[in-house]
Design a protein that fits this description.
heterodimer, A: mainly beta, Ubiquitin-like (UB roll), 5-stranded mixed β-sheet, B: 5-stranded parallel β-sheet
Amino acid sequence: MSVVRNPAGHFGGDRPDPVTISVDGVPVTGRAGQTIAAVLLAAGETSWRTTSFGEAPRGLFCGIGVCFDCVVEVNGLADVRACLRRAHDGDVVVRQQIRLPGATS
Amino acid sequence: MSTAAGRRHVAVVGAGPAGLAAARAAAEAGARVTLLDAADQTGGQYWRHPAEPLDHLGPDDLSVQHGWRTYRAPDDAVRSHPSIDLVTGAQVWAAEQHDDGPRLHVLVGPPDDLDRDALTLAPDAVVVATGAHDRTLPFPGWDLPGVTTAGAAQALAKGDRVAVGGRVVVAGSGPFLLPVAATLATRGTSVVEVLEASGARALARGWLPSPWRVTRSAGKLIELAGYASTQLRHRIPYRVGSAVVAAHGTTRVEAVTVARLDGGWTPVRGTERTVEADAVCVSHGFTPRLEVAIALGTRITPARFVAVDDRQRTSNAHVWAAGETTGIGGVDAALAEGWLAGHDAAGGDPDTADARRAVHRRQATREIAARLARAHGIRPGWVGWLSDDTIVCRCEEVTAGRLRETVALTASTDPVSVKLTSRAGLGICQGRMCSPAVSSLLGAPDALEARPVVTPVRLGDLARAGSPTTKRTTSHGTRPGDEHSTPERKDTP
């Protein structure tokens, strides 16, 4: 037998189940298997990070994990690429801004 | 030979079209294969699909896929072949060439998670099939939310069934803009227009001469014709010699400025018009993902592709490369190259009927790459749409003006020196997004230096991956072949 390891796993069922994540404390519902970026965009959110220097809003850009523009805090861990990470029920997502020393506040 | 049975161990990095074909060919030629992909599914960007059992996908999901049966065959083969170990969610974060062969350092688990499993492979051969990502030239406002690469829109529509916006402008250059527009239309988006930067003359120069040669790559042509008819059905205007030269909005894009371009891609003054849109998808071709190839010391061509011979061998005797890392040629080229690379990496006979057929198929697709470059290649006039406050490096928020100042102050156009002074390219994406643009702005050739870390990882991950208690870190004392025994393996339906 071939060995297939799939940490995220397939999402079963004919139609994907709803998943609800919390975004800055507000519940947002998407579909199982969607990335966090997709759940946010489907809910009408376009930005979930603020840049350190210019304090500009950022969201999805490359969509495939190359640019790191869409990073967000997930379950207490910062710098998670929202375009790659699948949303799981109960995920706690917090918009991210890391202020750097010397950056304007 | 790394196993007790004396079989070659081939590691394939990337499970897109090239990697799937390579893994299958290597296993069929008798090798033991480990197929790695950072995503939690196979198919790469080309066959990206919702995270559900494939038989559950609906007609709308399959209508945005091209050559789905071409995907299912190697995918089924890879999943059922007893000699192939498919590891998804596997991020290669470092690759090294040792005296006795390559090492791949891998973290396995959900993207960017802590506590991913560390895996070190010491294969006899590596097939690099890491693909490419969109290349997007900067323009004023391209950092506004709602502006994405065309690839992002495609990935989101195909993989998540979500459209980037309700009223979208697709712009840039290359035939990839058409399937993106078609996919968006399928997902219910109003695609306002598709703007191709190349003018009619360049397009004719690339696509019209010797059309009988293009028909040799009939698959590609049929694909293009399919997109064209979908576009007609949805009545999406396709304008050539035009570009989005600015995006406007406060917290997200609300409108764009569109301008005509001359043959050298310089915006023509007085042709500007404003188009309302809530999303803009922009791509100017593709950039190969070369990090693994560079880390393994393979020779890179002046055009920034992995140099390979007629059997897909690189300058490193342990490393083969296939697909978009060796030239932007599309899915047919990737499948043929992948097959050749896997077959040869496994030590397969180069003179079988199958091998000759793969060589022939690859030859037939070579023509496409040259035509793409002639018809859609980036022309230098694009810098004309930059203003001094246009951000070029998105990570470090370095503007075009700052880059020009740096060049003037340091009297240097050496990319390394400009990077260190301006910070452009020093952010978390490691210059993947801005490097080609910075080089064009400086008038210098790309200088993508070797990067020891293939993809950014946390310091904690490095500490864990290097710790002696880690389950699968291969050391010199480990019996070859044991390096990827995986206690928490599980079969997925």
